[in-house]
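hey can u run this one w/ SN-glycerol-1-phosphate bound, need the structure tokens asap thx
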Amino acid sequence: MLPSFYSSWKHIFKLDPERPIDDKTLDALCTSGTDAILVGGSSGLTFDNTVDLLSRVRRYEVSCALELSDPACGVPGFDGYFIPMVLNTNRMEWLIGRHIEALRDFGHLIPWELVVGEAYLVLNGDSTVARVTEANSAIDHIEAVAYSQVADRLWNVPVLYIEYSGMFGDMSLVRKIGNGLKQAHLFYGGGIDSPERAKEAADAAHTVVVGNIIYENLDAALATVSAVNPSIKEQDHVF
Ligand code: 1GP
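ok here u go:
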């Protein structure tokens, strides 16, 4: 059986270990009712800053997963690990090369019951992830759907991640891709900075990922949780 620790997650806060975050902010995020904290970043991840963030999040009950693109940052102790593979990269290393190297060196150490492959479709050409991986983001809907079918139907990848990091994406495309999936779980991330956008994205994808706004406007970030998980609001009324 493939790991499914993420299958009920609707809302995730993504934290970049390279960006400083104070205790009060972290407390607000971890007790917000979000389903998980995802640790990851397109650059600047180190073993030390990953350990540091994990140990701070571990004071809370919330699930905590790592998005691992560099085996040197393979910190043990997370609830799960996502291994990104960029579908529309022009550089093989981001699709398979780094993975081969990592498994050649560390394959015998990997806790497979906690590891999930995550196919990225990078659609904002101005994002750091697009630049680093040289992703070809200038594709039309037909091609984007084709990429999603390769991941979902040909490769049976457990998680497909539509990544618009830094901008709010085309929800009609996200819906179209989501409706066509046979087995993959759909993550959407990019530009979610309000309850309205969070709700719209949550209607199109299984899980929404909220990143940048955490560092820009904490209240706006927190407001995305109840927009996606209405039961959080109900709890507030009870207590
Ligand atoms: C980034 O998809 C996430 O990897 C979230 O995107 O930072 O734009 O919210 P934002």
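The first strand starts at residue 11 and ends at 15. anyway lmk if its weird
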